[in-house]
Amino acid sequence: MQEYQRKSLEPVESHPMLDLLLKPQQGMNATLLDQNMLGFYCLLGNSYLNKITVAGDKYNTIGELQVLPAYLVKIIFGDSKNIVKAYTIDSWNDARYDFEPENVYHFKTFNPDYGVGQWMYGAAPSLSNVLTKSNKSYEAAVSLISNLGAMGLLSVG
């Protein structure tokens, strides 16, 4: 058994997927890909990676990986069978770019907001501070009321 494991865990030196991750697209390397993906994920709670397939390839071989700007991406909702109809970006020059859902990898954080469509997006980690402060102020108000204290300022003039 150990001999089998040793043989199966040899490092891969060359593979098309490894080449793609090291150079995801023209002008981008693996470090920039990681920075963009993690940056959007940590700041906004969402990160989108679009795969561009090689034209005319019957196997849908991935030719490039493209990080989509998470602050511009909108999710177009479909029906109960296909929840996501498309991912879209409305550009500054009134151009609209649609991306097929099967070509977009969406990484998102947990989102407790189940408002209409909000559950499809990740919650920005920066919101956790707002929720914590809100909870702390609520706890302080409850503490004041339970100790028969008054909320607000008392001034003697």
Our Rg estimate from Cα atoms comes to 24 Å
- Described by the principal axes of the CA atoms, the overall outline is elongated
Low-confidence runs of at least 5 consecutive residues: none
Strand order of the largest sheet: 2-1-6
Q: Give me the secondary-structure category.
A: alpha+beta
Structure description:
The protein is an alpha+beta fold and 157 residues long. The chain has helices at residues 2-8, 16-22, 30-44, 127-146, and strands at residues 46-53, 62-68, 73-77, 84-90, 96-99, 104-108. It has one domain (2-123). The protein is built from 4 helices and 6 strands. Strand 4 and strand 5 form a beta hairpin. It is elongated, with a radius of gyration of 24 Å.
Summarize the structure.
The chain is an alpha+beta fold and 157 residues long. The protein has 4 helices and 6 strands.
Quickly list its features.
4 helices, 3-stranded antiparallel sheet, alpha+beta, 157 residues
Write the layout of secondary structure elements.
Blueprint: H1 2-8, H2 16-22, H3 30-44, E1 46-53, E2 62-68, E3 73-77, E4 84-90, E5 96-99, E6 104-108, H4 127-146
Antiparallel strand pairs: 1-2, 1-6, 3-4, 4-5
